[in-house]
Each structure stands twice: as C-alpha cells, then as structure tokens.
Amino acid sequence: MRHFDFSPLYRSTVGFDKLLSMLDSINSDTPSYPPYNIERTGENAYRITMAVAGFGEKDLSLEAKEHVLTVKGEKQAEDGAGEVLYRGIASRAFERRFQLAEFVRVDGAHLENGLLHIDLVREIPEAMKARKIEITAGQPRQIEASTH
C-alpha cells in the first residue's frame, strides 16, 4: 500500500481532523487475522462477518465504545483433549478494532458455522435528516424555533 500525505487536507478543511488522523494511521502492517468481510445489507444496515473457526461463544467478546467496535478472541485452555501432533487451525488470540461512523450502533451478533456475524445499523436522528423547506410568495415570514 502506498503512503499518502494528507497534510494539504489539514490546511483546507475544518472539523475533519479525526477522519484524517484515522486515514493517516492506516498502514500496510495491519493484522490480517482473523479474515473478515464488511458488507452493506440495506440502505442503513451493515454486517461484519469474521472467520473465527475453532472459537466458541465463550471465547469471543465484543465491546462498542466511543465509535469503536472491538472484537476479541481468546481460546480457553482445552483440558484432556490429547496430544496435538499438527496444528493447522489457528487458535491464537486476536483483537480487531473497527471504527464506527457517527450514529452507527451494533444491532446484534451471532456465531454460525465458524463465522461471527455482527449486524450494524445507522440511525440518523430526526433533527439531522433532510427536511423540505416550504417556499412562499409575498412577505417574508418569521421562522419560529420549534420546542421539542
């Protein structure tokens, strides 16, 4: 991956410093385990699917805090399973973080066939949604503040 210099954007934008810092922090050394997909499942719905073969529900934890979703996996010690002669199924501990946009929240998560599905939904507050402004002819009207 190439390194991009975002310093010109810092000089010409206001309020995007968090986004630019996040883009700046992305580099080619990002961990690749476990593999995952991010997909859009609806207009305001998303799903993260992580391949977590060998991990059970008790081995996984999810935490959403301050626009960051953290997924951790730590395999519990197996008792009396026998001697492993070859280990091809990865079971190493991991921690993967996903930066969530404003108004995106975790709707639920479930484990199925070695895949962890995390459903996300974006809920834009009514005050932030676009609204139609009525155009009238004649004298200008005083706009009154709504009382909510």
TrEMBL record:
InterPro entries (UniProt xref): A-crystallin/Hsp20_dom, ACD_IbpA/B, HSP20-like_chaperone
UniProt record similarity statement: Belongs to the small heat shock protein (HSP20) family.
This protein's name: Hsp20 family protein
CDD domains documented for this protein: ACD_IbpA-B_like
Pfam family membership, one: HSP20
Top-rank taxon, per record: Bacteria
